[in-house]
Recover the amino acids of this structure.
């Protein structure tokens, strides 16, 4: 009987010690790292998130739950393990034995443009007999950009051509003697110093050098991010895509760009603007910046964000779904004596009616784009 | 047939849970029967069965219990269940070998009907019969006390063995039901590592049950059942009561007393020869040990390799990974208790100063300067001494350690 009581005491002691061991050591050697597999992706593309759990100790964790908040624009497969509100609260369960590292890859679809960041992951573990629950968190540092989807070439061609036409028509003739552009036959009035004598000797007739222009044209893009309702949000997003596609093409042409918007910057929390961007190498930077542009309701007018005293040579392009007269007036005033383009994303089949109702200004050329 | 297929389709852990739930009824009923059959002769009634036999046959009560559960779940009309209940009472009587089985089954059927009527109003209810509960150990404790008072060695041994078995059933059931509850609750979750959770938590439950069995069962089986409780002497006021006491056999309550009602029924019952018992227990012990060793080897081999499970890549941490982690921890580790060097003294002094200023430990990721800013500690010299002790190429001197002590 004494032996039985001793053995029972021993068993009781073991069952008493086990939870205390977990109380003391459950977090020791436990690490959780969440990271996106890519730095960025384009809207509608698929990407993946990596969850890496390390349990570097001898106590196994039969149940380890990892939870974190994620924007609902990143859609995980069939909404699994996620509860939706304005954000997605995601919870994943792992079972980590002693001295194990578990890597889980979660595929998701980039359903919307944006900048996404995971700052913290919650940890909930249970002891070996699932009697107790332990809660903690781990700081995370991973970010992901969903870049705007490009607008099809056929659709963007009209506004692009209009912008390029305006740019070329304003281009001041100011040749750079060091930038060789080609040869042509001499015409009366050409300066003698531009005659290419070697080519003239070979051709047997007078040929003069052509030079490229060095004076670059600057285009200022103003993006109106005022949303409102499903249709409003959709068209505002379409506006960002238009701006992105235009900017990409203009940068490829070597045109300097400045972009302004009334939407906030998600990443910095301040106003959104991007000044003096040039060169095709800046395209990714520009797209990432556009990914951070925040949509909102009740925003101040976009023209309030344009810098004062714009150069008369600059071409101003406004991208806004807003067809209100006040916006047109404000934009016309901002242009002053200059000339600008007003790109208006609108619903399918609504451009005709919009054209009739839109208040016309002499210095604004409207361009309608149906989505 | 449909219900039968449903049972077969259940996961093994749920089948095991159901089995344990039935066994709990069998064990409790067996103990009650054995206690009654052991105590009845003391009232002058003669019974023709040994308590051990009654206990073993009483375990079969688990079978009609299981059938009763499926009958109440499967039969739609009450009259159908009442007919089935009659059959179950008969079966219980046949299996257990006495009317007590039928009576207990009738009682169970009544409770089942009551629970079912409650379920119609309140939703699913887990009946007492479907869940082992630690308070039921009181039945075994009562049998133990009765045997100790009455001096019944056989009943006492049975109560101990029964209690241990019931405790093991409870441990196993509650451990497994926690795992099952968690997995059922999260069954719709994608990538839920069911197999690994079952393997780790199930192995832990099995280990607890096995440890309990290894520790308690041999002691329970080898118990002589000689514990006695001597009640205070009571002199009856009337002579009639005294005569009744004299009529009973005067058994010393503080000494072991073998049961003699079997002798009255025609001599001692046949017993298994000791050599056969030893051989049997030896083989069972050897088999159990082999299974345990193989299980442990298999368990650890599974955890020591890398494999893919669903979307998870499970890797064993290499020695390099562990060493890297150990290095990080060593850097963060406090000076050892036995370390009485000036460096350790300075570091302790610094730690005390920070904790007294901030009242709670700082984050591990902060640098000393950040810690001081966070804690509001403005002792520049202490900071210098700490940096020297912690990161400096030269160790602190004894004078510097004393200086740090004065600064605090």
């Amino acid at each position: 009987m004494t032996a039985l009581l001793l053995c029972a005491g021993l068993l009781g002691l073991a069952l008493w010690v086990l939870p205390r061991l977990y109380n003391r050591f459950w977090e020791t050697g436990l690490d959780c790292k969440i990271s996106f597999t890519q730095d960025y992706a384009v809207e509608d593309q698929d990407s993946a998130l990596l969850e890496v759990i390390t349990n570097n100790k001898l106590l196994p964790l039969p149940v380890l739950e990892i939870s974190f908040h994620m924007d609902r624009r990143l859609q995980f497969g069939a909404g699994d393990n996620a509860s939706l509100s304005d954000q997605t609260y995601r919870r994943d369960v792992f079972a980590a034995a002693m001295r194990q590292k578990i890597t889980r890859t979660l595929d998701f679809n980039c359903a919307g443009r944006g900048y996404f960041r995971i700052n913290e992951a919650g940890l909930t573990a249970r002891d070996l007999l699932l009697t107790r629950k332990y809660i903690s968190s781990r700081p995370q540092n991973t970010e992901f950009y969903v870049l705007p989807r490009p607008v099809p070439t056929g659709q963007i061609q009209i506004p692009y051509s209009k912008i390029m036409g305006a740019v070329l028509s304003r281009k001041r003739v100011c040749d750079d003697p060091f930038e060789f552009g080609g040869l042509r036959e001499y015409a009366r009035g050409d300066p003698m110093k531009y005659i290419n004598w070697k080519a003239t000797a070979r051709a047997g007739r007078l040929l003069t050098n052509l030079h490229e222009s060095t004076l670059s044209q600057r285009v200022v893009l103003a993006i109106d991010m005022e949303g409102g309702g499903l249709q409003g949000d959709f068209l505002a997003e379409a506006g960002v895509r238009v701006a992105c596609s235009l900017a990409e093409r203009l940068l490829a042409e070597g045109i300097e760009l400045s972009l302004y918007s009334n939407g906030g910057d998600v990443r910095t929390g301040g106003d959104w603007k991007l000044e003096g961007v040039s060169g095709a190498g800046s395209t990714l930077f520009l797209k990432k910046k556009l990914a951070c542009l925040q949509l909102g309701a009740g925003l101040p007018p976009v023209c309030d964000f344009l810098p004062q005293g714009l150069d008369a040579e600059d071409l101003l392009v406004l991208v806004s779904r807003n067809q209100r007269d006040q916006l047109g007036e404000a934009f016309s005033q901002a242009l002053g004596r200059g000339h600008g383009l007003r790109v208006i994303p609108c619903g399918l089949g609504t451009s005709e009616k919009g054209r009739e109702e839109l208040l016309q200004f002499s210095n604004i050329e409207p361009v309608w784009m149906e989505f | 047939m449909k219900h039968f297929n449903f049972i077969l389709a259940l996961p093994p852990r749920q089948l095991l849970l159901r089995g344990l739930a039935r066994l709990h009824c069998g064990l409790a009923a067996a103990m009650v029967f054995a206690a009654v059959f052991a105590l009845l002769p003391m009232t002058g009634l003669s019974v023709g069965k040994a308590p051990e036999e009654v206990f073993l046959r009483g375990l079969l009560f688990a079978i009609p219990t299981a059938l009763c559960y499926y009958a109440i779940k499967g039969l739609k009309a009450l009259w159908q269940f009442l007919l089935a209940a009659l059959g179950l009472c008969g079966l219980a009587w046949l299996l257990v070998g006495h009317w007590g089985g039928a009576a207990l089954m009738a009682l169970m059927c009544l409770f089942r009907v009551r629970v079912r009527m409650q379920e119609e109003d309140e939703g699913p209810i887990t009946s007492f019969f479907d869940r082992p509960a630690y308070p039921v150990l009181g039945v075994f404790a009562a049998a133990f006390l009765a045997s100790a008072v009455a001096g019944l060695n056989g009943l006492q041994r049975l109560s101990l063995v029964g209690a241990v078995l019931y405790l093991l059933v409870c441990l196993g059931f509650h451990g497994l039901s926690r795992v099952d509850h968690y997995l059922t609750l999260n069954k719709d979750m994608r990538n839920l590592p069911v197999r690994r959770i079952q393997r780790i938590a199930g192995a832990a439950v099995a280990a607890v049950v096995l440890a309990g069995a290894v520790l308690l069962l041999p002691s329970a089986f080898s118990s002589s059942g000689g514990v006695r409780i001597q009640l205070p002497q009571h002199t009856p006021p009337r002579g009639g009561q005294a005569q009744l006491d004299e009529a009973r056999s005067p058994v010393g309550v503080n000494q072991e007393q073998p049961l003699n009602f079997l002798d009255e029924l025609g001599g001692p019952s046949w017993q298994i020869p000791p050599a056969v018992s030893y051989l049997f227990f030896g083989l069972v012990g050897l088999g159990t040990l082999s299974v345990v060793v193989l299980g442990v080897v298999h368990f650890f081999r599974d955890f020591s390799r890398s494999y893919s499970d669903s979307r998870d890549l499970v890797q064993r941490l290499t020695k390099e990974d562990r060493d890297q982690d150990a290095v990080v921890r060593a850097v963060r580790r406090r000076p050892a208790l036995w370390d009485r060097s000036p460096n350790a003294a300075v570091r302790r002094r610094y730690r005390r100063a920070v904790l007294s200023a901030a009242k709670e430990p700082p984050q591990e990721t902060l640098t000393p300067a950040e810690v001081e800013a966070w804690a509001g500690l403005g002792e520049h010299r202490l900071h210098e001494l700490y940096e020297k002790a912690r990161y400096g190429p030269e160790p602190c001197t004894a004078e510097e350690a004393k200086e740090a002590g004065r600064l605090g």
